Amino acid sequence: MLTEDSLIGVSSRTFCKSKDLRKSLETKFKNIRYNDDLLHFDEKSLIDFFEGCEGVLISEDKITKAVIDELPKLKVISKFGVGLDSIDLDYIREKEITLGWKPGINSFSVAELALSYMIILLREAYFLNRCLLNSEWQKVRNSRDLSDLTIGIIGYGHIGKKLALFLEPFGSKILIYDPLIKPNKKLSNNVESSSFNNLLRNCDAVSIHVPLTKENHNLISEKELMMMKKDSVLINLSRGGVVNEHELFKALKNNHLSGAASDVFIGEPTNTTEFSSELINLDNFFSTPHIAGTSNQTISKLGHSAIKFLIDECEN
User: Fold this and answer.
1) Residue 239 among the catalytic residues
2) Mean pLDDT within 153-161
3) Closest CA relative to residue 160, chosen from 218, 237, 101
4) How confident is the model at residue 311 (pLDDT cuts 50, 70, 90)?
5) pLDDT tens string 233-290
6) Average pLDDT for the chain
7) Rounded distance between C-alpha atoms, residue 36 and residue 13, angstroms
8) Active-site residue 124, yes or no?
9) More confident residue, 81 or 90
10) What is the set of domains in the chain, with CATH numbers?
């Protein structure tokens, strides 16, 4: 159990930049160590930062066995975010460390961004914008409305369901794949479950919303990309590692896919702000630096949820 005197370490840069969230946390706890320098931590620097902490509030920092072993006072991990792939869940259970986490908080903002990326790619807005930046006045080659298309959603959890809801007004046919749902099941007027391969073969746009697990690593690789419809588009707002980035590069380079958008990458920075990928120079690839779930409204919801977990452990 935590007390108001417990040392709380906050490594999340986004949380640390919010005056409102800091004020809320400080109403309950007296001793808080903030990442005021907005550092990207590696394993050693994370251990040093959290030294002596009984509670920690993290975002994407890797909580490995090595980190946990060096933090003997740690009792509670509160997650600012929804992904758990950066935490050694088996080991924190073994060490009886409490995890505070609530899924689905960011579903609206992630689904909203997925829909916008889908439209940008299908209407060729990104490609044509790049042409303008190069002083070229081009016209559309294959601009498509959502209303006449079949859209595929891989993963039908909080975000997948929200995206399907957002797509309803467009009248698109929607195929979803989720291993927990049997294929060929009508889920609503325009939403039907599908096998994985059938979805890839028949959809004009595919949006991925699954966690990064051993089973989902390289879920989309050469075989799956070549299975996708010619001139279809791929959107990945899940996790880096779910899509094989080099195979995606080849599928875009040879124009098998007309476009792709990603908010996540394998080599996302840990202790630096520098980043590179062979994908980002392609005219038919749109990218952002893992910002899908960080609108102002969602940041507030995620932050207050993380604070509540720490307070609950204090009051219990």
Assistant:
1) yes
2) 97
3) 237
4) very high
5) 999 999 999 999 999 999 999 999 999 999 999 988 766 678 889 999 999 999 999 9
6) 94
7) 8
8) no
9) 90
10) 7-105+296-315 (3.40.50.720), 107-287 (3.40.50.720)
Specify the amino acid at residue 172: S
220 contacts 260 by C-beta, under 8 angstroms = no
Catalytic residue among 54, 144, 290, 313: 290
Q: Rounded CA gap, 228 and 44, in Å? A: 42
Cβ neighbours of 294 (radius 10 Å): 18
Point out the catalytic residue in the list 13, 158, 209, 239.
239
- Contact between residue 31 and residue 5 where contact means Cβ atoms under 8 Å apart: yes
Residues whose CB is less than 8 angstroms from the CB of residue 57 and which lie 6 or more positions away in sequence, other chains included: 8, 9, 10, 11, 12, 15, 25, 78, 80, 306, 307, 310
Tell me which of 43, 112, 247, 268 is the catalytic residue.
Answer: 268
List pLDDT tens digits, range 11-29.
999 999 999 999 999 999 9
Which tokens belong to 200?
């890839």
304 is a catalytic site residue: no
